[in-house]
């Protein structure tokens, strides 16, 4: 539990599934990201229960604490200077050497390996839900899909559902597991595509049919054949 009077709000960083996120300071010196949870956006009791299971790993964006005494609920997290991985790839992708692309994939793997070891299923692994710090280290973030109340996002026919990152068993039976998180290593395809959208010219409905019939993402232009074989095995 963090005392809100020890928080200073600074610039807005953007808006996510639960509401506005701001850069802030804790006790005037520690930079943090502060999420204000919009009323009715989250199963708050479930989230607070989960927050007590402190997941802690260098490749997971660290949850520092929550402010529960007032509304909106505040979530205080580790601040990542370079923002989300997807925008980072789109801005800097071409300038990143293959070694950097590999290192970002490894960061995501290490974070996800830790989640699996702790039987935690992410459910929405994607480059948009990973963050980059000032040393260009990538960390997995926003493993909060379970608490989202918006069924446009949680139902597999909803407009916001991550169809292009989901395996057949999730699309057809909502069967989530660490294996479905492995399928979402579509992130590796995003990294080696420098932030392109998977199945860019296909609608979500077309992708459900394509994937069910066995179609898979093509080899990204910056991925060697052996690297493509690795991402392909995830699908
Ligand atoms: C349920 N799911 C999957 C969710 C739920 C909530 C969210 C998301 C998914 C993902 C999006 N999101 C969200 C929304 C807004 C902010 C953050 C967000 C942004 C951060 N950092 C930065 C840093 C810089 C910049 C920036 O402005 N630039 C421009 C100049 O070049 C450098 C980058 C943006 N964000 C950060 O550290 N955290 C912890 C969260 C986040 C990530 O947290 C959410 O809040």
TrEMBL record:
It is an enzyme of class 2 (transferase). The keyword Phosphoprotein applies. SMART domains: TyrKc. Its EC number is 2.7.10.2. It holds the Pfam family PK_Tyr_Ser-Thr. Keywords: ATP-binding, Kinase, Lipoprotein, Myristate, Nucleotide-binding, Phosphoprotein, SH2 domain, Transferase, Tyrosine-protein kinase. Gene3D superfamilies: Transferase(Phosphotransferase) domain 1. The keyword Metal-binding does not apply. This is non-specific protein-tyrosine kinase.
């Amino acid at each position: 539990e963090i005392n809100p009077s020890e928080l200073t709000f600074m610039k807005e960083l953007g808006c996510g599934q639960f509401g506005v996120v701001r850069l802030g300071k804790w006790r005037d010196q520690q930079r943090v990201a502060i999420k204000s949870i919009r009323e009715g956006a989250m199963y708050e009791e479930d989230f607070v229960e989960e927050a007590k299971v402190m997941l802690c790993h260098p490749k997971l964006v660290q949850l520092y604490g929550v402010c529960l005494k007032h509304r909106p609920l505040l979530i205080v997290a580790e601040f990542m200077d370079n923002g989300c991985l997807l925008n980072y790839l789109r801005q800097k992708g071409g300038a990143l050497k293959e070694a950097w692309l590999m290192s970002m994939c490894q960061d995501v793997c290490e974070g996800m390996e830790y989640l699996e070891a702790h039987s935690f299923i992410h459910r929405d692994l994607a480059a948009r839900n990973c963050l980059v710090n000032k040393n260009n280290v990538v960390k997995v973030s926003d493993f909060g899909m379970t608490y989202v109340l918006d069924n446009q996002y949680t139902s597999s026919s909803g407009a916001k559902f991550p169809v292009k990152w989901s395996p057949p068993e999730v699309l057809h039976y909502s069967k989530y597991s660490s294996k479905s998180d492995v399928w979402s290593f579509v992130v590796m395809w995003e990294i080696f595509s420098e932030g392109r959208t998977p199945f860019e010219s296909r609608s979500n409905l077309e992708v459900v049919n394509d994937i069910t019939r066995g179609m898979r993402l093509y080899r990204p232009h910056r991925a060697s054949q052996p690297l493509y074989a690795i991402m392909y095995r995830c699908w």
